[in-house]
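Changelog-linked ticket: FE2/S2 (inorganic) cluster example.
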Amino acid sequence: MANTILKKERLIPGQTSKLVIHAPHIAAKAKPGNFVILRVNEKGERIPLTIADTDKEHGTITIVYLVLGKSTALLEELNEGDAILDLCGPLGKATHIRTGGTIICVGGGTGIAAMHHIAKGHHEAGNHVVAIIGARSKDLLLFEKELKSFCPEVLISTDDGSYGHKGLVTELLKDRLEKDTTVTEVVAVGPVPMMAAVARTTEPFGVYTTVSLNSIMVDGVGMCGACRVTVGGETRFACVDGPEFDGHKVDFAELRQRLAAFSPMEKQSYEHHCRCKCNDKK
Ligand SMILES: Cc1cc2nc3c(=O)[nH]c(=O)nc-3n(C[C@H](O)[C@H](O)[C@H](O)COP(=O)(O)OP(=O)(O)OC[C@H]3O[C@@H](n4cnc5c(N)ncnc54)[C@H](O)[C@@H]3O)c2cc1C
Ligand code: FES
């Protein structure tokens, strides 16, 4: 049945899970950079999640999510065999794949899974792909094995030094850019402060930098305006004009502010869900 969860893997128990979902129509069309909007049940919010991988032959898509608030907590309650009520996609513009040169794909936290699909697209187009991935500690690092299966180089950093370089992904990036003049593009997917830091790091080197923005989305088709971001002084809608944009032109301060706009309500909704789960079910 469409939208059925065929496989669930708890990558970081209680925090991050991976779902392989039967969605043949989406799998057939999805490209790197696309996302889906899903609703867990009739009372559920619509939440956007990046397509981390596809298997066209078996008609499946893979999503990886961080349990952050009420809707991702509801998603986490589903198990193999359960179906997601609505799954809409593929949405957003696909990644612009350049050919020739070295592409550095930087991923932080859950963003590593989303970056994986983009890195795969660049690799399949014949580019030399270097992955730089980072997490707070070794046990929170995602998709290392998956990236190593096709990336000739995977550089790792952890904040606490429990694995790879002790420090930030931007330190590895700066070091690489100082030594390597073949880099034609840097792609960054992760928390907003990380993407902003990547853009600041690449700017002096003049290397084109793509960031994948996670602005608040509602309809996902350009009608509601919820996802508006400022890029190069112009208003753009992340759902239809993005989610990928030129990182040197994004107003990250405004994005951070808009993402935090509903924090008190989101906290209240999550606390209510934790206390009284019965009301959330259809
Ligand atoms: C294009 C896109 C792709 C994304 N891909 C992934 C992914 O692959 N994995 C992943 O873990 N997360 C991803 N996100 C973020 C994810 O959508 C939010 O974490 C999720 O909606 C949180 O919902 P919640 O109810 O659990 O948390 P809430 O408590 O409602 O919100 C927590 C935080 O999540 C963000 N958020 C809340 N609602 C939305 C919304 N409707 N749209 C966007 N952000 C929202 C806000 O920053 C908010 O402060 C993506 C966002 C976008 C826009
Ligand atoms: S989510 Fe409504 S316009 Fe983009």
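Closing comment: Example verified and attached. The chain has a mean pLDDT of 93. The longest helix spans residues 111-124.
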